[in-house]
């Protein structure tokens, strides 16, 4: 089973919606844990307007726009 991608988002964020749609279309089996940064003041302070941002473990997978090739490399262990 692939690792879980943690996707930090917020409501009414066009880029967040685009990233979620691309993830569902291109990585349908990848578990995604979506976290609303505005639900936690510490997360809102840490990420500010820099969403969407996604992590595989401690590694930043992407920020703002999904890079499918980079995400595939990260999932493959590279």
Fold topology:
Layout: E1 5-9, H1 14-26, E2 32-36, H2 41-47, E3 53-56, E4 59-63, H3 68-75
Parallel strand pairs: 1-2
Antiparallel strand pairs: 1-3, 3-4
Tell how many strands the DSSP assignment holds. Answer: 4
Question: Which class do the helix and strand fractions yield?
Answer: alpha+beta
User: What would the CATH topology be?
Assistant: Glutaredoxin
The count of helical stretches stands at 3
Work out the helicity level: 25-40%
Chain oligomer state: single chain
Which descriptor suits the 3D outline?
globular
Q: Mean of residue pLDDT?
A: 94
Distance between the termini: 17 Å
Q: For the largest beta sheet, what order do the strands appear in spatially?
A: 2-1-3-4
The CATH superfamily turns out to be Glutaredoxin
Radius of gyration, in angstroms, nearest whole number: 12 Å
* Percent of residues in beta strands: 15-25%
Instruction: Summarize the helix and strand pattern as letters.
Output: EHEHEEH
The CATH class designation is Alpha Beta
């Amino acid at each position: 089973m692939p690792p879980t991608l943690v996707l930090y988002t917020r409501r009414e964020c066009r880029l967040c919606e685009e990233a979620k749609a691309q993830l569902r279309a291109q990585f349908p089996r990848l578990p995604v844990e979506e976290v609303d940064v505005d639900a936690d003041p510490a997360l809102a302070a840490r990420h500010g307007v820099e969403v969407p941002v996604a992590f595989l473990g401690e590694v930043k997978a992407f920020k703002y726009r999904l890079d499918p090739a980079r995400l595939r490399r990260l999932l493959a262990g590279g």
